[in-house]
Amino acid sequence: MSGASAPKPGETVQIELQPGMMAEVMTPDNRLLFVGRVDKVQETGVSIRETNDETLPMVLVNKPVKVRFYRETDNIVLHGKVCGSTIKMWKVDRLQSTFTSEQRAFFRQSISVNIEAQCGRPNRAGRSGALFPCKVLDISAGGMLISSAEVYIEGERILVDRVPLVQNAPTFSFSCRVRRAGEWKKGVNRYGCQFEALSPRDQDRLLQAIFTIQREEIKKRKPR
């Protein structure tokens, strides 16, 4: 599985995948199934091992899945089918490229976390670099959606520190760029923010945190 050019939508993938790459395994409608790492790459497919010491769900052969593979500088989303599985690893073959828009559409996890953010531009009170309260509404490996009474415009950079995503785990710090801005309800605005300069290590840790949040939500929904 190697090649220099990016695949076209619908053609069998010929792109380099390497052992150790982070992989986000999803249903075709973007429901996260598990986060793992590429274990083996073969001509007939790729094996993805679960990395969080969890037991993988039972899966039928030929189940369609969507996999986001994380490379050093970008990511690629491929569609495939499960051709084998164990409680710790799935093998996916018949990998095909998908539409370019999906390369940017990270899985988003809904959350509700109160934080404080900082912007270098003076705020309405005339204070430069002042902290303002906001709430994180959802988060992905590429950015987050926040709400705040503060007014900011597209293109501005904000900094957030000590973001608690998982209980009893290290917090996160993000440098973000506002990409979408709009009023949500009277006096409260929503901002779509894109992460900047997120290291591979922090992105890895963020993916694991997102999966932990979803796993806890699934446990809460299960009948007792």
Quick structural summary:
This protein is mainly β and 224 residues long. The protein is 12% helix and 47% strand. The N and C termini lie far apart (45 Å).
Q: Spell out the helices and strands N to C.
A: EEEEEEHEEEEEEH
- Distance N to C terminus: 45 Å
Whole-angstrom Rg: 19 Å
- The secondary structure category is mainly beta
In DSSP terms, counting alpha (H) and pi (I) runs of 4 or more, how many helices? 2
The biggest beta sheet, please?
6 strands, antiparallel, barrel
**Order of strands in the sheet with most strands:** 1-2-3-6-5-4
Please count the beta strands (DSSP E, at least 2 residues each).
Answer: 12
Explain how this protein is built.
- There is one protein chain.
- This protein has 224 residues and is mainly beta.
- It is 12% helix and 47% strand.
- It contains two helices and twelve strands.
- The strands form two sheets. A six-stranded antiparallel barrel has the order 1-2-3-6-5-4. The protein has a six-stranded antiparallel barrel with strand order 7-8-9-12-11-10.
- The termini are far apart.
Element layout with pairings:
Blueprint: E1 22-26, E2 32-42, E3 45-50, E4 64-70, E5 75-85, E6 89-97, H1 100-104, E7 109-119, E8 131-139, E9 143-148, E10 157-163, E11 172-185, E12 188-196, H2 200-221
Antiparallel strand pairs: 1-2, 1-4, 2-3, 3-6, 4-5, 5-6, 7-8, 7-10, 8-9, 9-12, 10-11, 11-12
